[in-house]
Each structure stands twice: as C-alpha cells, then as structure tokens.
Amino acid sequence: MNGLLFALSVIVIGYIYQNRNLVTKYSTSEIPAHHLYYKSAITGFIFFSIGFVFTFLILFKFSLIEYHQDINVIENISFFPDLKILWVLSFCHALVFCLLFVWLKNYILLRGIDRVNNINKIYAMTLTTPLDKLLNDSAFLTESDFKNKIVMLSMDDKKVYVGTVYPDRKIFERFLYGQTEFIFCPMYSGYRQKETMELVITTDYLKDQNSDHLKYQVILNRKNIVSATKVDLDTLFDFMERDVFLNKLRYVSSKKLPVMVIMKTKNIYIGHLADNMSNYSTLTDVSHIGIKLAYQCIYERDQIKITQNYDFRTTKDLYCHLSFREVESIWFRTKPEDIWLQEKSVAAEMLFKMFEHQLLDHREVSTNMNDSPTMTNE
Predict the structure, then answer these.
(1) 91: three-class secondary structure by DSSP
(2) Which of 22, 151, 164, 283 has its CA 20 to 30 A from that of 190?
(3) Where are the transmembrane segments (predicted)?
(4) How far apart are CA 304 and CA 32, in angstroms?
C-alpha cells in the first residue's frame, strides 16, 4: 500500500510539472502515453526526493526526530515519525517545490509575453514538431505576412487543401488532450491523381475577389495529414501549369497528333512529335524536341505573314531537333486524318487554321496568337 501511494505521488507531481510547464507543455501531445508516464515519474521522483530530504531537515531542525548515536541506523528508524506522516509532509513539500520551480521557469523564459492575448507567441517558442510549428505559423502570423501563412495540406485520402489554419487560440490545448480536429480556411482544394500524384485543383474558393479568405471553413483531422508545406501561390500554379503542359505533350505524342511548333526565330515547323514524351518526368528535363517534319514556314514576326513555305511530305523520314528554350508556342490538331496528311496541296492560310488547340506554358507568347493564328501567303 505504501509503495502504491509513493508511485501515485511521484506520477501526480510529475504530471503537474508537465502540465504547468508552458515551455514543454505543448510538445507532449506527440509523446506516446507510456513515455509520458515515464517522463512524469522521473520528474516526480526528483521533486519527491527533494521534498523528502527537506522534510527530514525540518524535522531535525526542530528536534522532532532524534538520532541515537549508540544504535545503528536501522534501529533508529523506530524513532522516526509514522511513515504516513512523512509521506504527507514530503508530498506537500515536493508539490510546493514543483510549483515554485515551474513558475520561476515560466517567468524567466516567457517574460514579457501576455499569456492570455499572445498565447501564439508561447506556441511559437515551445512547439517542437515541424507540423505543429507550420500550423501555428499559418494560424497566427500577422496579415502583413500573409504569404507565409499559406500552407498546402495533403491528406491520406489524396485530397489537397491550400489555405490557412483558422486562428483558434485553443488549438494546441485540444491537441494536448487528444483532440485532433482543427478548422482550416481553404483558398483552393483538389486532389492528387492516384498514379502520377499530380496535383489537380478543382475548387477555387476565392472566385469572388471581395470575399474574406476566412469565409469558407472545413474541419480537418491532424492525424490524416500526410504532408504539409508552406506554399507560394505563384510558384504552385507555375509548377501545376508546367505539369499540365508536359501531360498535354505526352498525350499529343502518344496519339501521334499533328503539331505546329512556332519558334522565336520566326520558323514554323509542322509534323509529328518524334520523341516519346513519357520518358520525361518534369518539364525541365526537356531540352530539345524532335519533329518528324511535314512543313516548314518562315514568317514576318510583326505582320504574321508567310514569306517562305516548304512542303516536305514527299521526303521520307525527315526529322529535326528543336531547342525547347527557343519554342514560343505549340499547337496541335485533334484529327490526324486531316487533308494535309493525304498528300494534297493545302494553302498556307488553310493549313494554319487547322491547328485549333494551343499548349500553353510560361514562355512569352505573342498577343497576336491568343486565338488560332491566321497567316496569309504572300
């Protein structure tokens, strides 16, 4: 029974220390329960030992305990007060030392912080896990630092949310006591494709430019987060559009669709993609593209007029490799059975009107080519 009381005393004092110590309190939510018990027990044992020694010093000071020199230590135990009294006194002293120590530690390390109105500053100083730090920044950074508040959360069901964490001051208190739900304010949401893990945005919550980004809220579970990262929206959509662009190139290559490549050097190449674009994992891997050539044209940039037109359809297996950096835009046709494939003469104006779909990336494209390009033969 005495052993049980001692064990309970040690764990209680250790738990009080862990709970009152704001410096380490919010980092304990990630600690497994049995580790938390061990940590509390060790801390409690230290304080209880200090309390026990202090109790004996007080009792000796006021001569409440007598030590007889003519007998050994074991026999002197019979003159000690009742163990229950010693336990109560030691527990009380240990508790007082624990509270004083944790108050002093909080006061020194968190001096000058308003613990009611600026609890987020305590979170920022004391959180240890990268995910908690990220969620804290997203929730509590100021509006002037809004770009650093935006995070992208990938969930275990392949859903993806881009936005900010709702500034709930009790969020880590709930995490501490086992609750894992929190409020997220999405700006965009979508999913990752199962096989390629490509990010696809399906919902734009900010279509109304005047709407508050906190207007839309969704409840997410912290345990379901697979990955989390700060994100710059411009960079995010730049990567997304590059992925979309590469996927379109893969599609055009696999379907052997006719393409028209307009270069910055005023050359236009028409034919089929000769390279297997599926071999490239990112757009930055593409340095050149191969074209099985059917037509080549040269145009005047300012007037968009054809000055030279070459027909290579009768030339067998004529290929050219184009520098991808010099590509201004790429157009494709969804009907490979078009008349120009049937070895019939086609006017340049009609030829260029056939390519109605444009692959867009972040290269500068002439404003005159926002629609299907119309070129006239001189």
Answers:
(1) helix
(2) 283
(3) 42-64, 85-104
(4) 69
